[in-house]
């Protein structure tokens, strides 16, 4: 931005109006993407996000949808601007990318559309959206080459004209191409809406005013972040915890160290293990998204989501580790480690701000079924990451059956699932005794059992917290473990994969959240209510909560 834009001072009302307009643009882009999309993963679960960037790639606003998507959105802006001669960029050019190392992504299913906003022949902003495409199944995870098509930032549209050869290349590597092309059209519609809204905003206020307001908004976010950090007592806070996932046979020790000094915070992840030959590795932009989520959650969720918020934060992690992987490490299930690291950062700060920190929360159990639709004769992919129990808080129970921390997506309703896929959902319920006991109970896990109808299907089930549960705080007990339940006649899964014949069942049971406080201190009326509602068993009420 020009120096004159940086020194121009606007009245607070104008800044607030423009800030709200930027937030509205990205929220409207996200809603348009969900309404126009074809696949259940986007239109039902909302596994998508949108953002607006300054001409130099600085984040101006992000929709409040999937926090982890910030990693991909930051990456696509950086990589596109680094690799592209901007003098060649024209109105209605659209870049597409997904690669974790060259395309600004964090895993290959998240495909980003990135488009310039021109006013009077000059790029005044960029709009972007990201959507998770549930397409790449039956893939290995030893390295990224096995996980799907890697797309660096390339122009899918040039001056509004679709580059059919690029589209053909992408679709040839997709297993459900009809679904992909329809969702790509929805992403295009989202971006075009964003471009129109941003152009209208610039035409109303002018580039100088928008640039000045953006700078003041980022300064405001920085001040809010610094004030929130300064309210945390100075100190060096650490937390270590074992991590397990069905993707990897070994239990891995994770570590985080947080230093609060005045109005700045340093997050150091030295001590985390080397990257693995599995899909649970994270690239650095994912780690950044995790830290930003933690700080924003703890200091003030209403802090505007722009680059100013990031200024007081320093993040360090050795390259080649599971939290800062280098090519060609696989990254498909990077959310497994991300979820656990966020909980660990909360736990590290619990001694300093106990009233704001929850106990350990669920990881994400992924349930994927694929096969040939017996009526349509087409290949289908049902893919869903399932939440579970949120950790209890100092004065409140954890939420039941939800995505937490970095994911924040919804579920696919049974009615939508059964209408779109040749599958029957036999059980969809909360799991008794899965929430960690405490003065405040951890959130309950989910059980979803399904079966294919009239055909043989491939099933992939698994995730973290199969052996090491979500921890409790202040004498609260840990949550229940995740597990897989196979019906009669189903062979044990090999590396999370197996086959289901028509009518055979497989169920994913997610993990429960940890409890907070001594279970014997739980209000007796709350224990009786939990027992009456089937949240806890009679044995737990008697033996754990001491109900007579």
TrEMBL record:
Residues 11-519 form the Hydantoinase B/oxoprolinase domain. It is an enzyme of class 3 (hydrolase). One of its GO terms (biological process) is glutathione metabolic process. It comes from the Bacteria. This is N-methylhydantoinase B. Its EC number is 3.5.2.14. GO terms for molecular function: 5-oxoprolinase (ATP-hydrolyzing) activity; N-methylhydantoinase (ATP-hydrolyzing) activity. Keywords: Hydrolase. GO terms for cellular component: cytosol. InterPro entries: Hydantoinase_B (IPR003692), Oxoprolinase-like (IPR045079). The keyword Hydrolase applies. Coiled coil: none annotated. The gene is hyuB.
